Structure formats: C-alpha cells, structure tokens
User: Fold this.
Amino acid sequence: MTNLKGHNRDLAERAYRVRRNAVLMGEVQGQGYIAQALDIADVLAVAYFHAMTYRPEDPEWEGRDRFLLSNGHYAIALYAALIEAGIIPADELESYGSDESRLPMSGMAAYTPGMEMSGGSLGVGLSIAVGMALGLKRKKSSSRVYILFSDGELDEGAVWEALMSAAHYKLDNLIAIVDVNNQQADGPSTQVMAFEPLVQKLEAFGWFTQRIDGNDLDAVVGAFDAAKDHAEAKPRIIIADTLMGKGVPFLEAREKNHFIRVDPHEWQLALAALEEGRQS
Amino acid sequence: MTKPVSHPAKPRLTTSAMIASIASEGQRTQAAPFGTALVELAKTRPDIIGMTADLGKYTDLHLFGQAYPDRYYQMGMAEQLLFGAASGLAAEGFVPFATTYAVFATRRAYDFIHQTIAEEDRNVKIVCALPGLTSGYGPSHQAAEDLALMRAMPNMTVIDPCDACEITQVVPAMAAHQGPVYMRLLRGQVPLVLDEYNYTFELGKAKMIRGGRDVLFISTGLMTMRALEAAKQLESDKIDAAVLHVPTIKPLDVETILKEARKTGRMVVVAENHTIVGGLGEAVARHMMLDGVAARFRHIGLPDEFLAAGALPTLHDRYGISTQSLVDQIKAWQA
Assistant:
C-alpha cells in the first residue's frame, strides 16, 4: 500500500476500518457474508469517502447521492461503511442480525438509515435505480444514483431489461458497480451461467464500461472519477473483479463458498490479519 | 354453479378478441374514463407521471402520454422493470400511474411489486386492464386470480370498479391515497351504469345501490352491473334482490358487509369476476363465519380451472357470470 497516492492512503485506512467493522459484526453473529464484505470494502471506501456527496447527520438530505444495495446479503459490508461514514452510530455494530436491530442480515430500506432500498430478492435493484435516476433528472438534480450488484445477479433477466432502459433514457447520472467475485450460491458464477465477455456485452448495451481490479484502490478511484467525468450521455458501469476474503490471507485461501465458514476462534485471527495488512 | 347455459338458436360467435368490450348491445358507454380522468387530475398534480410496458394504447394511458409527453415513460415490454422503476420514481417523490395487463402485473412481476413497491410502501398506482375474465384470448390474458394475488400483499389497496362513472371517481381518490394501490381497469368503451344511481365512490366503502328483501348480492367490479341487471329481471319473478357494491376489496368494508348480511331472511350471494379461490367470496364468508352470521350463502365466480378462449358473451354464459346466468342461478336457488 505504500505506493498509493496520498489521498488514497487515507482511503486504505477507511477500507481497513470498513473491513474491521464487518469482521466485528460477523463475530457477533458467528457468521455472515464476511468474504463478500472483505472483497467489496475497497469499492465502498472509494464510494463513501471519495466519490459520493452526503450528510451523515441527515441521511435523507435531498442533495445526497443515492447508494443502492441490490445484493441485500452484502448489508454487513454496507453497514460497515455507513458506520465508518457516521450515518450509523458505531455502538449499533454489536446489534447486527439480532432481534430489534436496525441492522438485519439482509438490507431493508425501512430498517436502516442510509439504506435506500430493500434488497435480498436478487436482480431488482437496477430497475429501482433506473426509476430514481429518471426522477432525479425530472427534478433537475445534480445528484447521482450509485448501485452495487453482484455477478450472480447477471443471471436475472430483469437486470438486462434495466440495462437496456438506462441506455435508452441516457441516464448519465447512474453509476453501477458489479462485483465480480465469481462466486454465487451454487458455485463459481461463470460456471453457474456464463456471462462473459461482460465488457463487450455491456458496451453493446450502450453503457460506458470500465473493468478494474476492485481491490486496487488507485484503480477504483480512477474508475469512479472516470465514471463521474465521462462526457457521453450514457449510463456508467464499473466491473470490479474482486477477491473474496480480501485482506485476510487465510480466508482468501479458503475453499470458496458463497457462505464461507469461519470458526469461532478465527474472528480474532481475522482482525489480527487485517491489522497486519494495515501496518505493511 | 357454472353449468353451461345453452342458447341453441344463437349463432356461434367467433370473436376471441384480446380486448373485446364488455358493454352489452345498446348499453350507454363512456370512452376511456381512466385516461380522461388522469389527464384532468394531472393538470393540478405535477407530481403525477404515467408509465407503461408497451400497453399505453390498450390501457387508455396514451391519452396521458399525448397530453403530457414529458411526463410519460415508455418502459418497453418489460413489466419487472416497469414496477421497479416506478418504485424508484416514487422514492423521488413522484406519483407514478403504471399500466399493463393484469396478468403481467400480478403474475409476471409479482415479486417486483411485492419487494420494490409494497414492502417499501411506495406511492405507486398500478392500473391493469383485462382483469378477471374480460378477454377471450385464453389463460395468457385472463387474470382470473389477480385479486387473490394482490389482496395477499401487505400494504396494498385493491380496487375493482364497476363502470366508467366509478373509474372517473377512483382516479383522484387513489392519487389522494398515500401508498400503493392496485386498480382493475375497464378500458375503451366502458359501460356507464352507476350514474343512474347517484353513486359516489369512497375508498374503503361498500355502498348499497339497491334494496331488496329476498336476495343480497354482494358484488364487485363489473359484476355489480350484472347484479343490477339481474335484479331488475328478477322483479318479474317476484324475487326482490338487493345489491351491495364493494369496489374496495382491500381494505374491506367489513362493517357494512356484516350489517347487510345480518338482516334476516335474505340469501347472501357474492358475485365476482374472479376465480372462486381467494377473492371477495372467500373474504366475505370468512367475516360472516367469524361474526356468526348464519345467512344462506352462495358464491358466483369463475371456476378453479384454466378458462377457455372464445367470445366473451359465450364465456360469461359458460362460466356463470353473465346477467342471464345470474338470473337463472338465483331462480334455481330461490325455487
């Protein structure tokens, strides 16, 4: 990380803290989609601490950029970022997934400040994002809609309906990020249903498309900047190739599963591994 | 209950048009009441927008699109996208009226309505043509189960209007209501009936349209029109039939329904343009049972089977929801 530019070194610290928050939440429940949280932490750090405009004390501020989480099971990662952003108090972290908590296992709009949609039924988010982007344009707002979804969601036909319509309506205020960690419920995403060549497909659908290493902070920052600055009246998408378990070497190396096994004693080891990565 | 009614002298009808009119011959009608009412309402409601999935012309929403082209979104033949995007526009403070056929909204896009609209309590108005058996096109276009599906969804208000007079009043009422609404739409040349009865629509209210001592029709949608016609015909048989119109299926006006059902000496006949599974009939029966109302109970609705293609008058006779078959059934039950 020593090669990172100055501001991006700060982002590395943010990403570390997002990962740490996620691991602490995983420890509360003794489970969780922790491998996904670790893979997407760099993207979330750049979204919340570089790209987006928002007011932590007023999560519904009209001038905010909207961030939609379509893959609701990544809620553990988004909560971790919302805590780091000051939108959710840090002391709620230990309530994750518990009765009466504002932080349910799967993200839902009514429960959590800063949660813009109810995810969980995979493939619905991009349609909502299209509607929000149309709505912001109607209001002549300069806010943007960011939406995160997963490579597995590419199997859902409605995602392609929404991809087509975003280009039809020239939604240049819409920035999608697809997390390609190549893992979904039944196995590697590319084996469950071949979706490559993804860049060519998305370009053919009329999107300004970038493909990056989603765990390379300089690349993530560059992609978000380019997505915001791009001149063409097209929706923008960032294909982020990520590594499940990123930042915790023994989880990176573990046999990949949608729902990764973590033994009770390993949560502390994971925190130690993150701390070690932070120092290096 | 659904035995075919034979009319041997009648020529065989051959139309199986997708969007045949439900108006009977010589009936007074009004053109496109939904589109007309929405255009009128939108003059003072800039937050109202129109959206459709390639069925603007066939849901009368094209009138809105012509009047307000910049407030009209064509989403293509993509119902899941239609409702997801409607949710997004509602989240930004707009009031989308989203139209398609009832089958595509309730069957194809059910999860999108459930998750992006109902669960998030978004202010989206879902307006669907070809409800129940109003298409001769076969099961692909016959939404026999739409009320059952929509009333099972928390947060959803469900309305089944009778005629053009009612649709004209429902449009501003559903816009004034905060939250998701599903309305069954009659489109094109729509029968005009309730204006003769000085009718006023109120969201959530059942209305007595006609009194009677022998039979109480509890009806919704176009079946109220049929019940009123049947009641007139039954007069000559000395059968005095009342008609309670229940346009709001959810929330149900249980108080009025029970008040009328409790009156002694009347057979209660629920009539709906819907499968006998999960619609108004089962809802009324449930509340009567819970309240201990022991009136004789009959249920006129579509059978639990895939319905045939054919001309609508033929099908309405065959499945027992035409005026004549209502008359025949009531006479048999009262004999």
Observations:
- The radius of gyration of chain B is 19 Å.
- Chain B has a mean pLDDT of 95.
- The longest strand of chain B covers residues 267-275.
